[in-house]
């Protein structure tokens, strides 16, 4: 036997107290390190190589800013808010991540999935407050209400919500819900960072995230169809929103606005063609074509000079005010209403940001700090929530564009924020005549990547059938029920798949590879030789309470021997033999004693040693230890020795603690072996 090292036992209490003392002590050096760690910009900005980095950062910042403006205006439809709030969100998120983020390349800002999740909560709360979800108000009325109220909060309802008596319009209440939701999500993320709960992201596998993104994309697409064809239907809420929306669409298809349909068709053709050409010739282009911006500018000019709203009743964006609204503390009572909804929002936002940050860090050979990313995203939600902004996250499409246009550091994020600021201060009113169907086209075309996942299903199925099933279940639940429930269903289902796979793992009898000391699965490989008088059994999973019965059934089936049945048969056989000696030739069932004795003749057992290959058993619980002890006793009654091979230290410790080797461990060297071949040789040497 190998000699185990003696480890000095360290008191966890003492370790915890030492860490607390270290954390609570205050020195100027610790304060400096804390500030430097909390604001990573203080570490890398003084080392910024201006000549080497500035051109790439400026170019990528301008490109992302140009892309960000039309996307921000478009995604406001998903969130059920006015475009100005999306622009606020994009501006503040870039500035705060510049100060606190550890990734050099990730683009943080408005994201379609996050906007959808915010919009669903906003719609629900608006309905509960008694507002009409129909957002197709005439621009004239919207404009007049903006002039009457400097903060464009139309005073239309007087209501009481959970003890908060407030006089507030639909738009005011909607942004109040969104900021409360964003603030709580940010608090959750900061708390997760403080308590180092970043491991939560491990439970969101790639299949769950892809399925969630695809299902949410179907929901987003469905929500935009009414803008594409210019029909007025109520915004569906609750479970099954996708199905209900499509039913309403087909019921009202006759009311489609021909002007919106033609505009949508033209915009989609232009956008898709430009995207496909951009993907095909991206190696020749120094930066992506600003197709969305061109489409928005042209569509706005056509809509304005063609008077599409007045002549054809085409729905337009309406007035977008300039400047900043005075900051406002999110309502505490609304926070209580949306506290549960903020949890999945916080987790999804963090997971997408960290996964993209790790992807960029791996590609460009630097490191990020996942815990600091949690703080960065948290404060990208907490601080902007005071400035009428909603939840943010890293976005894959903009991150890829950022890296492809020469981005070197988060200085590019500041440049993007300046572009958004320019729109906020001066250019926002120019988008008054922009049709909503154009914004819907931009959103739908941006979903190409997620919707293309359907093409990958056959290849995914060939790689792993279980992961494909997880993807399908998550996608279906996210689309057909709701995004939050879909995410929960995906996590639970993927965990169940893992549990089922450990409950019914692969089992095998092993044969010897000829002229070697190695053994493999006799069912999978040719030309393996069986070892005389020895059975070698492999169980490819931890042995615990959930798979105990499967372990025993598989062992009995593959060795063709159930020791309990065989022991009972032998006991009855010996009993019948005693009757025969006494001269009693009949039994209770009327059969002759000789006939019964012949039926109970013990089986001819073709092995005298059972070797258990424990190389795939990562741990044992109490049930697992007791199962091995039962096997040891049952086979010993049949004069069959049980030998364990390739046990890891954790399994050995569990066996010792459970008394498998006896009190003094004297027989341990005859029961435990560090290779299958050693166990087989020992079994052969036994009489």
Automatic annotation (TrEMBL):
Its main location: membrane. GO terms for molecular function: secondary active sulfate transmembrane transporter activity. This is Sulfate anion transporter 1. The keyword DNA-binding does not apply. It comes from the Eukaryota. Keywords: Membrane, Transmembrane, Transmembrane helix. The chain crosses the membrane at residues 53-75, 95-118, 172-191, 211-229, 334-354, 375-397, 409-427, 471-500. It is a multi-pass membrane protein. Pfam families: STAS, Sulfate_transp. It is found in: Membrane. NCBIfam families: sulP. One of its GO terms (cellular component) is membrane. Residues 524-683 form the STAS domain. It comes from Dryobates pubescens.
